[in-house]
Specification:
Blueprint: H1 2-7, H2 9-39, H3 48-68, H4 71-79, H5 83-86, H6 88-110, H7 113-129, H8 131-137, H9 140-167, H10 174-182, H11 185-200, H12 209-218, H13 220-254, H14 270-278, H15 281-302, H16 304-312, H17 316-340, H18 346-366, H19 369-383, H20 386-395, H21 402-411, H22 415-427, E1 432-434, E2 437-439, H23 441-444, H24 447-465
Antiparallel strand pairs: 1-2
Length: 471
Amino acid sequence: MSWSNKKNPLLNRDMIKNANEHKRGQNMMTNATASHTEKNKVIPSEILYPFILVTSLFALWGFANDVTNPMVAAFKQIMLISHFESSLVQFAFYGGYCVMAIPAALFIKRFTYKSGILVGLALYSAGALLFIPSSHLMAFWPFLISYFILTCGLSFLETSANPYILAMGPEENATRRLNFAQAFNPIGSLIGMFTAQQLILARLDKTAEAERAIIARSAPEQFRALQVHDLSILRGPYVAIGFIVLIFFVIFLLSKLPRSAGEDEKNLDLKATLNRLWSNKKYIEGVVAQTFYVGVQIMCWTFIIQYAMNELGMAKETAQGYNIIAMAIFCSSRFICTYLLKYFSPGDLLMSLAIGGFALILGTIFIHGMAGLYCLIGVSACMSLMFPTIYGIALKGLGDDAKLGAAGLIMAIGGGSIMPPLQAAIMDMNDFNIGGTMLSSTRASFVLPLICFAVITIFGFRAAHVHGHTY
């Protein structure tokens, strides 16, 4: 071969030229493949740091949500109020989401996602730190105001972070990307639940409510001392998270976050945008489904403590342990369901999980003892996928309208402010006699979560089989 090359210099040059061209072709194909692979990644490498930073917010608001749910039971004991009155914690907490969602969306449209995140962190921190004066005022209403301000901040965070995550990469896998980011929300929730159990509920004075009522009438100063002690315990974790959120504020302030497509467009034709959203059946049905989903989530996680206390005679901190188990199941199921989205359509998987939740709530209502509690715990496995999947289905294909559309879905979190007080009002009633069978008011109250799962089932079916072509 070497002799032939020497004897045929033209052939040698042609062979070298062909080899080089073949090599260049292979390199171009390799680069194109790599470019295609990078383009279709759920999380493109160039936005990995911003993605991690924004995803950390999901854990932050998860902590706030789930350190607060058990406080319904705590305030009932500390303030000696009814189930309905104590559930006003949820009304104030989730009411902040509802009230601030549209202003947050308009603010983000006028400025940037980063600006929305910074305002959200500032309000979150301010609301948490307001627990200091609230605890000294020794009244219920200052805490409600503190919760409301805190969740106005959470509304800014969720209105910013959810659509920002959707925009961080290819639209075809946006729902998977949001599900992945949302999978870190339960981690914050677990920390919040553990904090509520070990640092608040377990450290509250053990004097029973009935005895506290007697002390309040016969020895007001002693009762006031009990309240001072318990409110100082309750205040601590909120003040701590207030300062932690301030640190995150500084980190975000100093970090450079990429602008999403269309973020430089500041013009907003509010009427035209609302008209487009209102005429989009998939979006409107998504808002309705999200309202009922958030309602069922907050009811199940708030009143698992009351179910365990009223039906099984458990102490608050023991009951909260089962709430933590439910959240661990939720967290694990979120990762599993995110993986399953590779093989099933979001609508079909959502519908299947909603049917499972419906069946488990029936068990919660009609099965006595620990089996009923286990059914209530198991509901968390079915809920894990729902929020980000409903969110992703409703917003997909909206383009720049997604900014205002996201606000509607965050307003839907207001379902968590309306439904828990309704369930609490049922709990305050007498037991129910249904066809000669006595049903406690606690178990009967779970008919509201049952209705919620029926609505979500319908949306999942319609998302997959009616609106399937639109996502």
